[in-house]
Amino acid sequence: MDMDRLKTGALLIAGVVLVAWIDSFFLTWLVLGVAYLFAFYEAMKLYGVEDTSMYVYAVALWLVSFVYQNPDDLIFVAFIVAISYMLFRGKLEKQKLLPLLYPTASFLFLLALYKGFGMEALIWLTLVVALTDTGAYFTGRSFGKTPFNPISPKKTWEGVAGGVFLATVIGAWYGVSFVSLFLALVISFVVSVSSIYGDLYESFLKRKAGVKDSGNILPGHGGMLDRVDGFMFAAVMMVVLLRGLA
Questions:
Q1: How far out from the chain centre does Cα 129 lie?
Q2: Residue 233: which of 186, 184, 185, 200 has the closest Cα?
Q3: What was the pLDDT predicted at 1?
Q4: Mean pLDDT of 135-154
Q5: Residue 150 burial (CB < 10 Å; 0-12/13-18/19+)?
Q6: For residue 96, what are the domain limits?
Q7: Residue 194 predicted with pLDDT over 90
Q8: What is the pLDDT of residues 80-124, one digit of tens each?
Q9: How far apart are CA 6 and CA 12, in angstroms?
Q10: Which of 9, 34, 54, 86 minimizes the number of CB atoms within 10 Å of its CB?
């Protein structure tokens, strides 16, 4: 195994555990914010957007999220302001809206999950996403034969099924502290499947951009988006489901 990958992975796990143990809103907001800005930078490159003013916009949006009660609402404000400004300048540049959708919206939903449901909900999300990825990897290596999608040729239906099954069962075991067993199973399943497609979407962006990794900030792992891609769709689904069903 690549030693750089092993060391970086260990540091990432240690950092996540430390943040979860401290359970401070400011620290969680800060760590998510740093991850968001790196992911935003990488997404801008993948989308081919070169307007540096977008970074000022991203920082301002995250600063507002610190004091706003429902951070996920801010994505609608962001779109309205961005579109209004573009119209004022007489040119609607749709490509510039994409980084506001992915990864901006997803990180706002991650913060909303913490604000609305606490660190335990973030741990639940992390558990489901990590088990989906890990389960798919090992099941795919052992039994994988049927390609899942041409965008990500290494994924197999057998691997995906194994990962989703593992994440759903163990995720439901953890989720019963929030909701009934049935709802915990439903939420864990939907979030797990969503994480698969969050990963697939990032793979699509990288293939379209002609790159192997979204960046190189994490030795052995690539970019920030390469590590958080599974959370990007999953966080949105968990917030929506917990608000609507819990």
A1: 9
A2: 200
A3: 46
A4: 88
A5: exposed
A6: 3-245
A7: yes
A8: 999 999 999 999 999 999 999 999 999 999 999 999 999 999 999
A9: 10
A10: 34
Residue 188 and residue 173: Cα distance in Å, rounded? 10
Helix (H, G, I), strand (E, B) or coil at 221: coil
Could you tell me which residue, 143 or 104, shows the higher pLDDT? 104
Q: Beta strand 147-149 with 152-156: parallel, antiparallel or unpaired?
A: antiparallel
Give the Cα separation of 199 and 133 in Å (integer). 9
| C-alpha 232, offset from chain centre | 3
Q: Count how many domains the chain has.
A: 1
Provide the residue type at 35 as one letter. Answer: A
Q: How far is Cα 43 from Cα 225, in angstroms, rounded to an integer?
A: 8
Helix (H, G, I), strand (E, B) or coil at 155: strand
- Per-residue confidence (pLDDT) for residue 218, from 0 to 100: 87
Q: Name residue, tokens 């977008």.
A: 54
> What DSSP assignment string belongs to 130-144?
HHHHHHHHHHHHHH-
DSSP string covering 115-130: HHH-HHHHHHHHHHHH
In sequence order, what are the residues at sequence separation of 6 or more whose Cβ sits closer than 8 angstroms to the Cβ of residue 59? 37
